[in-house]
Sequence to fold (300 residues):
Amino acid sequence: MIDSRIYTFLEVCRTLNYTRASANLHITQPAVTQHIRYLEEFYGVPLVEMRGKKVFLTEQGKILERLAASMCADELQIQKVLQDSIRKKEKLVLGATLTVGEFVVPTVLGRYLEDYPDTDICVTVKNTESLLELLEAGEIEFAVVEGRFDKSIYSYHLISREKYIGVCGRNFYEKECNGGSIPMEALFQNRLIVREKGSGTRGILEQFLQTHNQSLDKFKNRIEVSNMAAIRKFVGGNCGISFLYETVVEQELKEGILYEIPVESFEIQREFNFVYLKNSIFSEKYDTISKYFQTWRGNI
Fold:
C-alpha cells in the first residue's frame, strides 16, 4: 500500500494550495504541512517552496510528482491483477480517441482475443485530453491516441502516421474544385463541421490555422459534432466541409460520397500512438500489447 502522505503530496501538486488540499483531503492544514515535511526529510530533498502565499514545486518535487502518479496508478492495477487472479481471467482497461476507437481498436482487439480469448475488455472512448487525465488517475491502463501530447511525460509506441485531409460533398466539389488547388482562405466562406474542443482531430486544424495567423472563427458558420459517423453524413449531405483523417473516409471516397478538397500547401500527417505512464511496473505488459497495435496496418 502507498503511504497516505504520497496522496497528500499529489493533492498539493494538483492544487498548489495547502488550504485547498487540506479541504479536499478532509485533514487539517498543519497535517498537510507535516506530510510534506516528512517526505522532504525522507527523500532528503526540497519538494515545495513558498513564495509569499503561493506554493511552487521544486525540480525534485516535479520529479516526485511524475513518479508518484505512476506509483498510484500502478497501485490500482495491482489491485485489479490480484482480483483477476481470483476470477482466473485477465481484464484490459484502455482508452481510445474517437477515430482510433472506431477504426483501429476493433481490428486490433480482434487479433488480441484470438490469442487471449478469456480476456475481458473495457474501452473508454474520449478525446485525447480526457484520456490522458484518466491515465494519470489510474482509471485506464493505457490509451491509444491521435495527435500531439507531451512525450516527455509518457512512454509511448508509434502505431502509424495518418494523412489528414479536407473533405466535402459532391455539390461543393463540382462547384468549387475545377481541377486546381484551393487556398485555405477561400474555404472560410463555407460552413465548417468539426469535432468538439479538445479532440485530436480538431486540434490539428486549429494548429495549422494558428501557424497561418488564422482560427476556426474565420469560417462563416460552424457545426460541432462529437460523433464521427455524423460528421461524415453531414458532409456527404452537403451541409458543409470538414477536415478528417483519410483513413476515416476511405470508403466514402471510393464510393464518391465524399471528395478530397485540394487545399493549397496542406500536406499534413499525424501520429497514432500507444501511450502509458512512464516508470510503470507493468511496462513489459504494455509493450507486449502495443505490438498488436503497431502492426494494425502492417506498415510499421
Notes: The chain has twelve helices and eleven strands. Residues 141 and 285 are 10 Å apart (CA to CA). The mean pLDDT is 88.
